[in-house]
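Q: What does the assembled structure look like for these inputs?
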Amino acid sequence: MSQLGRVKQWNTFARCWHLFDAAWQNPLECAPSIEKYLKGLNKPIYHPLVDCGDHVVVINSKQIAFPGEEWRRRVYFHHTGYSGGATWTPAWELHDRDPTMIFRKAVYHHMKGNLFRRVVMERLHIYSDSNVPEEVIENITNQIPPLRSIPKTLGSYSKEEIEKYPKIIDYPEDFILSKN
Amino acid sequence: MSSNRFTPRGFPRVPLQNGIGRYICQLKRITLRFCKSSGSSRGIRDFIETDLINFAQDHPGTALYLKPRRHKSPSFVAEYLNGEREVISCHNFTAQQTIKWLNLYTTRSGIPLMRYAKMWHTECPSIQGVWSPFTNKDPALNITQFPSEMLSKPVWEEKSATEELIEMINKQKISDENDDNTQKVQAAQL
Amino acid sequence: MLTLRRATRVLQVLNTTQKCEQSFHRWLGPTLRELKRRKDSQGPEKPAHRKTFLEWNYDTEIYAFSKRLGEEFNNDLLQQALTERSYIIREEERQKNVGIEQPTLNLSDNKELVSKGSDFIDDIVKRYLRTVLPRLPEEGIIGIHKHLTSIQTLSHVSFHIGTSDLILCADFPVEKLTLSNVLKSIIAALIESSGNSRAALFVRDFIITQLADKDLHQFWEPDEPIKLLSEILARDGIQSPEPRLIGCSGKNTILACFRVGLYTPDDKQMIGLGFGETVDIAHEMAARDSLRKLFGTSDNILLPFNLKLDQLCASSARNLSVTEWSQKTIPAHPSHFELRQAKEICSN
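A:
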């Protein structure tokens, strides 16, 4: 192969690094979009037998969100292989033990089970907070947009904003809103 | 035959860039082997009687040999410029069938049959340049500090009830002000 | 056909099993096995020359050869072109061994034709390249010419037009040098039979078309592209280009990819783009890319393979050498498009 052909192929199959902020995101909803980047489905050169997937760095996995009763009702099953070795761990308990586990399991279980799945999963790097090693951050060249925006909590509003907020009624002066 | 997974796999190609300069018929030699008396050679004998001269005139670049062999099943041997040689049995063929098979083997390139990975092949896959992950990328990403505030927003999101409420209030305020203004103007005119 | 035969065979076997007797002799298997063993012990079969076959007529083959190429040859000249010196020597010795003291062979070898054909090929190939690649430096022209007239290329062409069976020479299988010599002598025979213009078309159709689909810079690569580029630009009064990193991915990994663009310092125009595993490689490839653009030899170039002898430039014309190449001093050659138009007017 000529020199030009070699670098052309290198350029086409260059592995990119993407960042994903998991704060306030539902891991089950995020899994399809993460999988797309991990397998390289977003590339026109994609072929199931071609190794063209990218790396994805997920940060803030401790702050993922589940809807409704999901934290209590969702159960992760594990069997040690011995009799009576079955365990059912609720999502909240698993998240307490390892904050990256739920996200990793969500992506892993979303993918079709074949011999490539473990290889593809090696390209997923999950961090429970935003403290990512410098050499990993330097690799990143793109950010995957989140599916939902982060909701604003009541505490994050400043005093001015609260005063400016439109009011329908004025409370009477002796009306007690909260104890403190 | 070509769907067999054990046949060699490859791309369509031509020997010696045939057709870019001028076309050369790749069949260099053909030997018809037949029996003068047996019934299985009847079709090939008919072919030799009626169409052989025409065939030879149409393909002057192909050397043609006749090889009568007693009590043998008829066949023809096609030899190609790339050194390949193929034997085709013509047992019980009619003259028409013989012509068709000869026609097939004169138009072939002589490259052995293979399973085509694609039905086309090119050394220059793209005129505009091959795609790369950098194609159509915003160059501003090169100097962005990750995680970036701007890219941490969803692509599209429905308006929340709070936002809609604030919008409605703001609209009302503006219309109230407008009403006040018009009233003032009317009063001034009066 | 095969299935029918197999079906009858099965029926035969069924019939015989009913009669409880075997349809073939007990000695058949062991005999065949023994024959196979003896054959294997002799080693692989030696290749036989096609002329040793029963169906072989040299005159027919020669006739088919010229018709195949679509050329009118003088028969004696073609015969001479296909005769090697080694064949004549061997035949004379053979006659001497038989007892003929003064062997007479009415054959002449192709030595003169080879040198004549070689000169003609050199001339046409160089003129063709200079016509279609007027901006490529002379070193590049020589590099491509060297590839096209190498024994490798010429023997490949010669084999694929079917000379290997027809050559009269002592060596078998025919050597590559002999094959390429015979191609040269055939072209010389064609010059004498049908004239220069037909021979030029022959060279174009069979030798120059070997360039199709190939990257021209694999035959000639400047050694120090960055230095060469800045020298060339300096001759045009442009300062040496400024490399900039315009993209990278995974830069702390072994699969890092860098993209470097070369910009002119004055008007900030991008003149070349390179990519590679390291910044240095990418920089070098960017310089090569801008040289390709200057020389008009991008990797997806379409060479016109339809020029005739009268459309080629004169044999005295030379392209500029690398040491004096600059955009100002490029002589105005007709472009490919103009040449094509000229050809269409001629044909109309």
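Chain A is about 35% helix and 15% strand.
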